[in-house]
Specification:
Elements (H helix, E strand, L loop, with lengths): L1 H22 L4 H4 L10 H20 L16 H20 L9 E5 L5 E5 H25 L10 H5 L4
Antiparallel strand pairs: 1-2
């Protein structure tokens, strides 16, 4: 199980880097254009992914920022957003590396963004975190195509895993 989550943490960082690389082909106004996505724009979607990771990592570690809104804009500047994403990915990889097998079944007690008390095993939370990232990266990939990026990057886990499997 440790290897599974370590692979997902590494894959997550890899996929985010590829997504951000593709987004650099766009002008700032294009990245922020309201395309009627769930978080309106590519920039909004990328901000949301960072917000969610910060919330979860704060719940799990007690450290770092914990934004109060899922649609918060943490960074207006794309370069700053990318730097923060890369730092958060490194933080997530480091956190996963500290976990032992028994940690994944440990129950984590937390409050959701509405202040409601919840509890789940750590392994379920981490599965959600990585699945959530994949879900919204798919949306971001679609937004890239809408904005004229003819070939958004392949982000499937297989493209990450095959060269290293």
């Amino acid at each position: 199980m440790q290897d599974h989550f370590r692979r997902f943490a590494a894959y997550n960082a890899w996929a985010n880097a590829r997504l951000y690389d593709a987004a650099t082909a766009l002008k700032d106004t294009e990245r922020k254009k309201d395309v009627k996505g769930y978080f309106r724009s590519l920039h909004g979607t990328l901000n949301h992914l960072l917000v969610a990771d910060r919330i979860w990592l704060h719940r799990l570690t007690g450290e770092g920022e914990a934004p109060s809104r899922l649609d918060a804009t943490l960074y207006e500047n794309f370069g700053e957003l990318r730097d923060a994403r890369e730092a958060e990915d490194r933080r997530l990889v480091s956190y996963i590396a500290t976990l032992e097998l028994e940690d994944f079944v440990r129950t984590v007690h937390y409050a959701n963004t509405r202040g409601e008390a919840k509890q789940l095993p750590l392994g379920v939370i981490l599965s959600h975190l990585f699945n959530h990232q994949t879900h919204h990266r798919g949306q971001a990939s679609h937004i890239l195509r809408q904005l004229g990026v003819a070939e958004p990057p392949a982000l499937d886990l297989l493209y990450f895993a095959l060269p290293t499997a």
